[in-house]
C-alpha cells in the first residue's frame, strides 16, 4: 500500500465534499480516518467514492430564487457509531433557498451514554454554526432567528426546558449554552421526522433509496 496515493486521493475527495458535494461527506470523513495507515479495504472504499462521483458527475446543488430567504438547519447524531472508540458522530447541514450552503461531519469529543446525549451534543455544535450565520444575516436583514430541526424529542425537550437532572449531569457544561441560545431567541428548535431529516446521511451510511432522498432534500439534482 506504500505506492498507493491514498492521502492525495482523500485530499481530493475532501475538497469536493467541502465545496459542492455534501452527499459524500460521511464517506469521505470515514476514509480520511485511515490516512496514516490505510489498508486495502480502505483504498477500495476510496475508489468506490470516485466511482460514485463519476456516475453522478452531472449532479449539482440547485437553489430556488423564489425561496423565502430563510436559513434553516438540520442536526443529527449517530450514537456510538465508531466501533473502536464508541464515540458518536455529529452531522449538520444548513439550507438556503432549497440548497445546502453549509455542512459538517465530525466525531464527538466525548462518549455519549445515550442517544439523547449524542443528539444534544450535536445540537450544541449545530447552534454554534447557526449563530455564525445569524450574525451574518443580522448585518443584512437585522435581527433574525435561525430554525433548527432535530429528530430526537428528548434532546429537544432538554434543550427547551434547560433541565439539569441526573440523566444529563455528566454532559459537559459547555453544551448547556443551547438553552441560552433558545432563551435569547437566536435559534428555534423544531422536531422533524427522520424520513425528512436532511442531516441523516451525514452521520451514517444509507441505502440507495436513502441517498436519493438525502440528495433531494439538500437540493442536489442532475
Radius of gyration from the CA trace?
18 Å
Total number of beta strands? 7
Which percent range fits the helix content? 40-55%
Number of domains: 2
Which class best fits the helix and strand makeup?
A: alpha/beta
At the third CATH level, what is the topology name of the largest domain? Nucleotidyltransferase, domain 5
- Provide the CATH architecture of the largest domain: 2-Layer Sandwich
Discrete helix count: 7
Succession of helices and strands: HHHEEEEHEHHEHE
Ends distance: 35 Å
**Order of strands across the biggest sheet?**
4-3-2-5-6
- For this structure, what is the CATH class of the largest domain? Alpha Beta
Mean pLDDT: 90
Within CATH, the superfamily of the largest domain carries the name: Ribonuclease H-like superfamily/Ribonuclease H
In terms of DSSP E residues, the strand content is: 15-25%
* Oligomeric status: single chain
Taken from the alpha-carbon principal axes, the silhouette is: globular
Which spans of ≥5 residues are poorly predicted at pLDDT below 50? none
Briefly characterize the structure:
The chain is an alpha/beta fold. It has 7 helices and 7 strands; from the N terminus they run αααββββαβααβαβ.
List strands and helices in order, with pairings.
Layout (H helix, E strand, L loop, with lengths): L5 H14 L5 H8 L7 H16 L4 E2 L9 E8 L10 E8 L2 E9 L7 H27 L4 E5 L2 H9 L15 H7 L3 E5 L16 H10 L2 E2 L1
Parallel strand pairs: 2-5, 5-6
Antiparallel strand pairs: 1-7, 2-3, 3-4
Helix pairs in contact: 1-2, 1-3, 4-5, 5-6
Amino acid at each position: 500500500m506504500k505506492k498507493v496515493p491514498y492521502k492525495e486521493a482523500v485530499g481530493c475527495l475532501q475538497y469536493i465534499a467541502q465545496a459542492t458535494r455534501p452527499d459524500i461527506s460521511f464517506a469521505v470523513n470515514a476514509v480520511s480516518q485511515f490516512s496514516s495507515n490505510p489498508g486495502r479495504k480502505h483504498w477500495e472504499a476510496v475508489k468506490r467514492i470516485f466511482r460514485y462521483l463519476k456516475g453522478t458527475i452531472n449532479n449539482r446543488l440547485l437553489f430556488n430564487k423564489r425561496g423565502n430567504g430563510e436559513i434553516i438547519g438540520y442536526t443529527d447524531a449517530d450514537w456510538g457509531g465508531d466501533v473502536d472508540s464508541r464515540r458518536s458522530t455529529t452531522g449538520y447541514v444548513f439550507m438556503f433557498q432549497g440548497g445546502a450552503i453549509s455542512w459538517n461531519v465530525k466525531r464527538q469529543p466525548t462518549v455519549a451514554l445515550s442517544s439523547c446525549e449524542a443528539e444534544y451534543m450535536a445540537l450544541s455544535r449545530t447552534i454554534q454554526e447557526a449563530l455564525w450565520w445569524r450574525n451574518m444575516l443580522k448585518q443584512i436583514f437585522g435581527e433574525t432567528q435561525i430554525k433548527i430541526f432535530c429528530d430526537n424529542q428528548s434532546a429537544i425537550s432538554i434543550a427547551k426546558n434547560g433541565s439539569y437532572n441526573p440523566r444529563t449531569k455528566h454532559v459537559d457544561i459547555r453544551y448547556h449554552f443551547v438553552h441560552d441560545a433558545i432563551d435569547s431567541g437566536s435559534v428555534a428548535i423544531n422536531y422533524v421526522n427522520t424520513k425528512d431529516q436532511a442531516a441523516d446521511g451525514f452521520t451514517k451510511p444509507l441505502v440507495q433509496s436513502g441517498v436519493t432522498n438525502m440528495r433531494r432534500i439538500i437540493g442536489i439534482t442532475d
